[in-house]
Amino acid sequence: MSVTIADIRRAARLLEGAVVRTPSVASPSLSELTGARVVLKLENFQHTGSFKDRGALVKLASLGSGTANGIVAASAGNHAQGVAHHARRLGIKAIIYMPKNTPFTKVARTESLGARVVVHGESFAEAREAAAKAARSGNLAFVHPYDDEAIIAGQGTVGLEMLVDDPDLDVLVVPVGGGGLISGVALAAKDTNPEISVIGVQAAAFPSMYAAIRNEPSGGGGQTLADGIAVKTPGTLTEKIVKDLVSDIVLVDEADLESAVEAFVRAQRVVAEGAGAAPLAALVRRRDRFAGQKVGLVVSGGNIDARLVSSILMRGLVREGKLVRLRVEISDSPGTLAEVTSRIGAAGGNIVEIFHQRLFQDVPVKRAEVDVVVETLDSDHVHDLIESLRESGFPTRRLSATADTDTDTDAEAG
Question: Where is the domain boundary, 143, 167, 198?
Answer without folding.
Answer: 143
